[in-house]
């Protein structure tokens, strides 16, 4: 009964979404107030019905209702509660429900918080949002009904892939979707602006909080995924340039560029067409990612069950949504008036550099991901692009980006003084030297790129501190520390957000560089009692013992870690064998320390009392995620800035924008 | 109207065309040209200085064998690895083609996860992979006793592919003289 309620709710939501896609759009073109004001209630209505459907599916998982095909295929009665919940979105159908839920949630939020938007503009934004929702609902109801029944009901479920049974992964997809789908708001804003044919700084101010929100979720989601790969998969790495990882990384790069170009648009009324294009591309890349994951055109760890019918449907959806918006862009963007001018060496110039570098990076990742497919389609030749391609092409761009990042915030708007900026950056240059030298003192010789990485990270940190000092006016005499601190406290949250996010970037670079360059790895065969030196640590193998878990059995190794005579930690890596579905997984034991992680994996026995083991010392690796954390905090700070508070544009909207009546009709 | 504004649309149209073709290529199916063809001739060095490498003649010794293309940098390879270990334990002859990999990384990979392969050839520049038409790592080939490719699986062998692969092995074994003798 409950699954049927869920099914009907989806159908009702589809009807409401279709109405919400048509009526307000028509109303906006006819300037019909009643039709336009239908948008918000219809949006909230579809959200509520999708929520009911989501709750119904959740209920089926929680009570292990094995008369529902989706539950049979992806759940198991013995599974722990958390994974019954995360099982809801751990499969194609369920994840689509979550996808449309978030889509309509964002639509409702725009409707409820966007009272300041002109009525016709809000109606158009919501109509575009509803159009996307209805397309996905249609897709779901036609090809992937999550509530399909099995008769007779199954006795037991097939279980969830044990690799996916992890707290980190339980929240990775929802966050990622929040990011992917959040970009739809920028997309809808861009399409609505193209339809209205008007675009100004206010548009940038409206769209920026949504981009920030989506960017934060996407950043956190990607970080969580890589963290999961690092500690759960026991592969020793954290990023693999896997097609599906790339599919989330491309929208991230574009969202980052968009975040920066909206600043230029808001402050200087420039880069309008470019910003619009980024807003369209950001969500387009999210859609493309969805297509890649679900159509099976590329092989990947993440791929859901493959079904060509679904692939074709998403491809058509993709072609209509992206093709339609890009065609609109081609026709309409030319009529937007050009914005403010600026010299190449200026804050705007630096932000353009940021945009160009980020967009090229996104294009490279896209090409690298799709190249095998392209070549196959064109010539039938079969090739693979491995991580080497991405490393060779990506790293130089990031080097340039980091250099520019040091300059950007110190250049003035419109026309910057490079001489003055260079003067201010002397200390940052010194910091770069000290950083590279410090790395040599701590870890000794390493590859050239490692020292370059440290120099760049410290260059960036130096530049941020210089900027802070400049804002606090610490060079003013007489020196008054309290007054300087007071000035820092009055610095807008948006600036603090920038500092935090840029500092996060520096910390991330340090983490990546150190862990890639100075990692110690030991592959050893150990008998109980054997000791191995790994970097500054001694790891003593105490033996293995069998252990049992709720739905698996395991052998557990035991290592005691000493530094000199000082006890550091006990490590318990496991090899688990799951029963449903039958699968073996490696649980690495990781002991994070601020200067690096101790990492142990236990392998197979040699049959003569010895066990193979893989032991690592990975310097600064947790800094990767700390850096990402700082970026997300920066996004949060920026979001909480007064200027961007949702109510703030209200006055501006009334004073600077003509009412909807004054807008030219089509 | 500005021509440059049309560029994104045109690029996207090209992308959609490629994706459409890609969708109907069905990369997981056997390209018909490959079936029943003898394996390309090759002679690869071993992963390590000592030990034996892998030659095409190793694959045509009269019994059905599996050739698995793997690399330490390939994430999906880890997914199918336990299944390969299972096959090896059952005594199914499994050979490895280590594709575009550093030998030390590959050894570490096998050290961590176990070595299911009877012999491994190190295809460092990917030449042999090209001859085989390797589309993406991992790939698994079922080769019958005459050294002909009987079946090809692209991508990791997921639980739902295992039965199909086992059947392909059984079928190839029936066509192979050495296996027939063994079963008699």
Description:
The complex is a heterodimer of chains A (666) and B (184). Chain A is α+β, with helices and mostly antiparallel strands. Among the domains of chain A are: 1-165, Four Helix Bundle (Hemerythrin (Met), subunit A); 520-622, no CATH class. Helices cover 63% and strands 11% of the residues of chain A. Chain A has 21 helices and ten strands. In chain A, the strands form two sheets. In chain A, strands 2, 3, 4, 5, 6 and 7 form a six-stranded antiparallel β-sheet that branches. A four-stranded antiparallel β-sheet of chain A has the order 1-10-9-8, with helices on one face. In chain A, strand 8 (589-593) and strand 9 form a beta hairpin. In chain A, helix 1 packs antiparallel against helix 3, helix 5 (81-87) runs parallel beside helix 8 (167-196) and helix 13 (347-379) packs antiparallel against helix 14 (387-407). The two termini of chain A are 48 Å apart. Mean pLDDT of chain A is 85; it is low at 299-305 and 646-666. With 184 residues, chain B is of the alpha/beta class. Chain B has a single domain, classed as Glutaredoxin (3-Layer(aba) Sandwich), CATH 3.40.30.10. Helices cover 39% and strands 17% of the residues of chain B. Chain B has helices at residues 7-25, 75-89, 103-113, 127-132, 162-174, 177-183; strands at 43-44, 54-55, 65-70, 94-99, 119-123, 139-143, 149-154. Chain B has a five-stranded mixed β-sheet. Chain B has a two-stranded antiparallel ribbon with strand order 1-2. In chain B, a hairpin with a 5-residue loop joins strand 6 and strand 7 (149-154). The longest helix of chain B has 19 residues, at 7-25. The radius of gyration of chain B is 19 Å and the shape is globular. The model of chain B has no long low-confidence stretch (mean pLDDT 80). The interface between A and B is large, with 62 and 51 residues.
């Amino acid at each position: 009964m409950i699954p049927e309620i869920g099914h009907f709710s989806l159908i009702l939501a589809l009807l409401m979404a279709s109405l919400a896609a048509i009526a307000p759009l028509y109303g906006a073109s006819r300037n019909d107030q009643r039709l336009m004001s239908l948008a918000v209630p219809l949006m909230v209505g579809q959200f509520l019905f999708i929520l009911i459907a989501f709750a119904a599916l959740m209920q089926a998982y929680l009570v292990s209702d094995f008369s529902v095909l989706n539950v049979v295929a992806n759940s198991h009665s013995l599974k722990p509660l958390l994974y019954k919940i995360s099982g809801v979105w751990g499969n194609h159908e369920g994840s689509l429900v979550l996808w449309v839920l978030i889509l309509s949630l964002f639509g409702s939020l725009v409707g409820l918080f966007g009272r300041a938007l002109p009525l016709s503009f809000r109606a158009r934004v919501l109509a575009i949002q509803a159009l996307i929702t209805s397309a996905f609902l249609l897709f779901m109801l036609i090809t992937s009904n999550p509530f399909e029944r099995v008769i007779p009901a199954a006795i037991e479920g097939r279980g969830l892939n044990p690799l996916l049974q992890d707290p980190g992964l339980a929240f990775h997809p929802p966050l990622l979707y929040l990011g992917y789908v959040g970009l739809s708001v920028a997309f809808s804003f861009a399409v609505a602006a193209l339809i209205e044919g008007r675009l100004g700084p206010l548009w940038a101010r409206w769209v920026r909080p949504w981009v920030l929100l989506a960017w934060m979720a996407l950043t956190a989601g990607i970080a969580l995924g890589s963290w999961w790969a690092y500690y759960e998969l026991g592969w020793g790495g954290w990023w693999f340039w896997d097609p599906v990882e790339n599919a989330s990384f491309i929208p991230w790069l574009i969202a980052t560029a968009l975040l920066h170009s909206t600043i230029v648009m808001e402050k200087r009324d420039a880069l309008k067409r470019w910003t619009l294009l980024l807003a369209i591309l950001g969500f387009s890349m999210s859609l493309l990612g969805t297509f890649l994951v679900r159509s099976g055109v590329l092989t990947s760890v993440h791929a859901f069950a493959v079904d060509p019918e679904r692939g074709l449907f998403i491809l058509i959806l993709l072609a209509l949504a992206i093709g339609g918006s890009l065609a609109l862009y081609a026709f309409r963007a030319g009529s937007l008036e050009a914005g403010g001018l600026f010299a190449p060496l200026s804050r705007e110039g630096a932000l353009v550099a940021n945009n160009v570098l980020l967009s090229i990076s996104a294009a490279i990742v896209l090409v690298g991901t799709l190249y095998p497919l392209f070549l196959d389609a064109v010539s039938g030749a079969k090739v693979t692009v491995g991580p080497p391609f991405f490393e060779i092409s990506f790293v130089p761009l990031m080097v340039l980006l980091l250099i520019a990042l040091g300059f950007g915030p110190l250049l003035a708007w419109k026309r910057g003084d490079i001489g003055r900026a260079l003067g201010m950056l002397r200390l940052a240059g010194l910091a770069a030297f000290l950083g590279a030298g410090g790395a040599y003192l701590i870890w000794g010789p390493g590859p050239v790129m490692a020292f370059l990485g440290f120099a760049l990270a410290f260059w960036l940190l130096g530049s941020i501190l210089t900027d802070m000092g400049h804002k606090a006016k610490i060079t003013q005499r007489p020196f008054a520390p309290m007054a300087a601190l007071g000035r820092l406290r009055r610095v807008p949250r948006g600036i603090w957000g920038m500092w935090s996010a840029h500092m996060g970037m520096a910390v991330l670079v340090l983490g990546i560089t150190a862990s890639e360059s100075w990692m110690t790895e030991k592959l050893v065969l150990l008998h109980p009692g054997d000791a191995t030196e790994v970097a500054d640590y001694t790891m003593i193998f105490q033996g293995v013992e069998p252990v049992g878990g709720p739905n698996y059995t395991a052998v557990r190794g035991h290592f005691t870690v000493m530094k000199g005579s000082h006890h550091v930690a006990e490590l318990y890596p496991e090899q688990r064998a799951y029963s449903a579905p039958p699968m073996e997984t490696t649980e690495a034991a990781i002991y994070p320390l601020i200067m690096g992680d101790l990492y142990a994996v236990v392998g197979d026995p040699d049959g003569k009392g010895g066990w193979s083991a893989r032991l690592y010392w990975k310097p600064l690796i947790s800094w990767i995620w700390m850096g990402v954390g700082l970026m997300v905090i920066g996004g949060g700070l920026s979001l909480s800035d007064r200027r961007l508070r949702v109510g703030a544009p209200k006055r501006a909207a009334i004073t600077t924008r003509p009412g909807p009546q004054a807008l030219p009709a089509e | 109207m500005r021509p440059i504004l049309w560029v994104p649309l045109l690029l996207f149209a090209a992308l959609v065309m490629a994706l459409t073709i890609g969708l109907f290529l069905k990369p997981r199916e056997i390209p018909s040209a490959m079936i029943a063809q003898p394996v390309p001739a090759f002679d690869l060095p071993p992963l390590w200085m000592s030990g034996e490498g892998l030659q095409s003649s190793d694959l045509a010794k009269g019994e059905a064998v599996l050739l698995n293309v793997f690399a330490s940098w390939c994430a999906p390879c880890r997914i199918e690895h336990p299944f390969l270990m299972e096959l090896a334990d059952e005594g199914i002859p499994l050979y490895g083609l280590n594709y575009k990999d550093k030998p030390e990384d590959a050894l570490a990979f096998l050290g961590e996860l176990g070595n299911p392969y009877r012999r491994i050839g190190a295809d460092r520049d990917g030449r042999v992979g090209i001859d085989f038409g390797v589309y993406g790592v991992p790939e698994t080939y079922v080769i019958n006793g005459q050294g002909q490719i009987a079946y090809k699986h692209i991508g990791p062998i997921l639980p739902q592919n295992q039965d199909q692969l086992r059947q392909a092995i059984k079928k190839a074994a029936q066509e192979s003289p050495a296996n027939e003798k063994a079963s008699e």
